[in-house]
TrEMBL record:
It comes from the Bacteria. It comes from Bacteroides clarus. The lineage of its organism: Bacteria, Pseudomonadati, Bacteroidota, Bacteroidia, Bacteroidales. InterPro entries: AB_hydrolase_fold. This is Alpha/beta hydrolase.
Length: 262
């Protein structure tokens, strides 16, 4: 079986595992147009090797519809795991979980799980859109370890470039003006610059040969380093942004193992 065939079957198994997990575990936090769908996997208390850690996954774009990411990837880690769904907004579902009302609900849901599990470590992770969201929410909690892949940084630029106008309107709460687009574009940059809490450490995977690096990641890294944040970089050279799915799971597992070992 060659590598491409293995990858095909692996992705198929991942989809089936996530589908079945969703059927039995998906819940909704709050109600109305800003409700959040999620899955929570508590640490198995009967296993001696478990750690009191809470890992939160922020999802990427999934084409038409929305889906949970990396559910099966972390199946062997006996830690508390919270998987979020970003399914509000546009044909290509998602609002980066920052739409007014949604962002507040996500923060409240994470805080609820923190209050319940009382973790000694927090890990926020995600790729692409999920990477942006993971970094965004890490600025709202103390001592978060962040593991991300190829995130966007300047949202208006990206959404316009990709013609995701419906998603842009949802994020801007239908206030789609030039000034609102500029504010959104600089939103995460400004939050990093003025944050009370910064990530404890950022693990980041990216390729210098795909457009996200020059358009987003390069400046984001400069801003994070200017804040003296400890950064671990995993650098590749593929040209297609979507190829991160073949590299990030391994880096994610390695990063979480390192975080847990300390």
């Amino acid at each position: 079986m060659n590598l491409s065939t293995k990858q095909f079957w692996s992705r198929g198994v991942n989809k089936l595992y996530t589908f079945l997990s969703t059927k039995f575990r998906e819940k909704t936090f709050n109600a109305g147009e800003n409700r959040i769908k999620y899955m929570f996997f508590p640490k198995k208390q009967r296993k001696l090797n478990g750690q009191n850690v809470l890992a939160v996954c922020f999802p990427a774009f999934a084409g038409k519809g929305a889906k949970y990411n990396y559910v099966r990837t972390l199946r062997h880690f006996n830690i508390n795991k919270l998987f979020l769904l970003d399914d509000i907004g546009g044909y290509d579902k998602g609002n980066y979980l920052i739409k007014p009302g949604v962002e507040e609900n996500v923060k409240a849901l994470i805080q609820e799980k923190i209050d319940i599990t009382k973790p000694t470590k927090l890990i926020f992770f995600g790729s692409s859109k999920g990477g942006y969201a993971a970094l965004n929410f890490s600025l709202m909690f103390q001592d978060v370890n962040v593991c991300i892949a190829a995130p966007q940084y300047f949202l208006s630029d990206y959404l316009i470039r990709e013609k995701k106008y419906e998603n842009l309107k949802i994020i801007l709460d239908n206030n789609d003006t030039e000034s609102a687009r500029i504010e959104l574009n600089n939103r995460l940059k400004e939050k990093i610059d003025h944050a009370i809490w910064l990530p404890q450490k950022v693990y980041i995977h990216y390729s210098t040969e795909e457009h996200t690096y020059k358009e987003h990641i390069k400046e984001m890294l400069a801003d994070l380093k200017a804040k003296n944040i400890n950064i671990v970089e995993d650098i590749n050279n593929y040209t297609n942004h979507m190829d991160l799915v073949y590299f990030f799971p391994t880096f994610l597992i390695q990063s979480i193992k390192e975080i847990l070992s300390k």
